[in-house]
Each structure stands twice: as C-alpha cells, then as structure tokens.
Amino acid sequence: MNTLENAINELVNTCHGNAKAAGWHDKPREDGTMIALIHSELSEAMEGERKNLMDDHLPHRRMAEVEMADALIRICDYCGMKGYDLGGAVLEKLAYNQTRLDHKREVRAMEGGKQF
User: Fold this and answer.
1) Which of 32, 84, 87, 89 could form a disulfide with 5 if both were Cys (CB 3.0 to 4.6 A apart)?
2) Which neighbouring-strand residues pair with 55?
C-alpha cells in the first residue's frame, strides 16, 4: 500500500473515530444529511473567501482554510461511516486524471473546452 494511501485512510479512521467517540454516530446518520453537512462547510468556505474573513475559532487562520479543513473532516467521517477506501480511490482517480484529455491545458483552451 502506498504511503499517501495509508495517510489518507489513517485520516479517515481518525476523523470517523473522533466523531463516533463524540456520539455523532450513536443513532444511524442518513447519507443525504452527511453529504449536506459536507456541502455546508464548502459554502462557509466560499463565504469566507468572498468576504476575506479570518476564522472565529482559529483567528490566526483564514476562515476559508478552516472551513476546508471542516469539509475534509466531514468527508473523512462519511467515508469511515461507509467503509470506503478513500486513500485507494484518491490514488486511482489521480492516476486516471493523468490520462484524461479534458485535463490537458491545450484541450481546455479549445472552443467548447472545459473552462471555469
């Protein structure tokens, strides 16, 4: 197993273990609710960027940075709850993306190419 894969899966185990220890999984949690909570953290990150805010709880950090951390924690908790191999999936997806035409600079620049 790859070191990065191990590190990601260890983070999943830590985040999910912390959530379980805090009682967040005492009752079964619905998938849609968990995904909505991930989304809410991303929305808070966007708000922090939009308003150029510092975080309330970690005032030495930007709000967007902390909300991204919250989103990652929630993603890891969800993956732990579902028993997903997030580390393996991330490595496979990174490798796959290297083969995608729409991930190449010149293709995105073409008429009708994937652009932001």
Assistant:
1) 87
2) none
Number of Cβ within a 10 Å radius of residue 110: 12
Q: Does residue 48 contact residue 61 with C-beta atoms inside 8 Å? A: no
Q: 114 lies in a domain?
A: no
CA angle 71, 76, 80 (to 5 degrees): 150
What is the domain-level CATH number for residue 12?
A: 1.10.287
Specify the number of domains making up the chain: 1
Range of the domain at 83: 3-107
Residues 6+ apart with CB under 8 A from 40: none
Distance CA 116, CA 108 (A): 9
Question: pLDDT per residue over 19-66, tens digit each?
Answer: 999 999 999 999 999 999 999 999 999 999 999 999 999 999 999 999
